[in-house]
Amino acid sequence: MKYTYLPTLSVMALFAFMVSAPASTLVEYGMTGSNTAAIVQATTVSASLSVTVLTANSPLSLTNIGTAPHLSLVANPGVAESSLSLANTLTDGTYFSFTITPSSGTDFSLTSLSFLAAAGGSSTPRAFYVFSSIDGFSASNLLLSDSTSGTLKVGAANLTSYSLDLSGAQYQNLTEAVTFRIYIQSPGATSSLLFSDILVAGSVVPEPTTTALFALAFGWGIISRRRRSTHSESI
């Protein structure tokens, strides 16, 4: 009696590939368009995910600066803070946000959140603070920040790249929506911060049950074809 392990190996290889999908761009706000309504829309959204527009929480407002087709997002806090204070900024609620939601039967894992940022003018202090719904929105859950007292530069010509590592276990195999908030503060209600090219990287795979069923069906198809082929040869 002959045994063949080809179907089993094929199923195992398929299962491994589906579970360990390589990281890629899941969501990107490329800031392309001719107005604010256009640049708050995502320019890239991975299959099996949906994402909201960049949404301002009052009193913060969003406008734009630059030359189409590539603009920068201008965030005006609507509240003046004369000194750096995360606690006051959280109380003010001066943030914009976006939410990523997986479709049913899909989970996704995150690796990073990156964006460009700069102060919109020379008055100080100005700062941004990044939070997510996974960790929470209290001061102790701060994920990333910078200010003009740190390395935050001034002006659209000096937009600087920032990256937040999201490879922690709490950001893997997510089956429910995750929301990111970027809070800002400045010394004037219309003293802005600038943002561009907001990108979330990671991977999307079917949930384990879905993957297993697909792999089982794939393997059974191979075995069935081999059986039919063997039967035909023996006639």
Quick summary:
The protein is α+β, with helices and mostly antiparallel strands and 235 residues long. It is built from 4 helices and 13 strands.
Helix content: 10-25%
CATH superfamily: Galactose-binding domain-like
Derived structural class = alpha+beta
Order of helices and strands: HEHEEEEEHEEEEEEEH
The name CATH uses for the topology is Jelly Rolls
What is the radius of gyration?
A: 24 Å
Largest sheet: 7 strands, antiparallel
**DSSP summary, beta strand count:** 13
Uncertain segments of ≥5 residues (pLDDT<50)?
2-6, 8-20, 209-218
How far apart are the termini?
Answer: 17 Å
Beta fraction: 35-45%
| Domain unit count | 1
CATH class: Mainly Beta
Shape field: globular
